[in-house]
Amino acid sequence: MTHTADAMRAFPQVLHESRQSQFGSLARRIADDVRAAVGTGLLGPGSKLPPVRSLAKHLGVSPNTVADAYRQLVQAGIAISRRGSGSTISDSANAIVQSTQLAVFEENLDRLLSSAGQLGIPTSDLLLRINPRLERSPV
Description:
Elements: H1 4-10, H2 12-20, H3 26-39, H4 52-59, H5 63-75, E1 79-82, E2 86-89, H6 93-118, H7 123-136
Antiparallel strand pairs: 1-2
Helix pairs in contact: 2-3, 3-5, 3-6, 4-5
């Protein structure tokens, strides 16, 4: 997917939901939604991100908010910004996003295990509840 229109269509609902959320800065949520679109394959290396003004108008937010989101993506190595050419998803974006997603998963797993320990749930009971879910899961 390399056309800006395709990128805009790839995640408009996700971005719209960001606007409705009440947690975190709006720019951060927009950047997170682009990360999610990369993580799910909706946006791949070389995909053009919508122009700042177009996306801002689409979302009903300030262009500065979108520009801030794009800066965050560039700083994280997920996007490349070239003056006059706009912003595109970097070649290394998938690896960066996957690494971040794995770190978040591991943090969530640590919280789950800690919570189970605090509740006094034995490891055997925890495994009894996890294993059937793993068998049903497409993972």
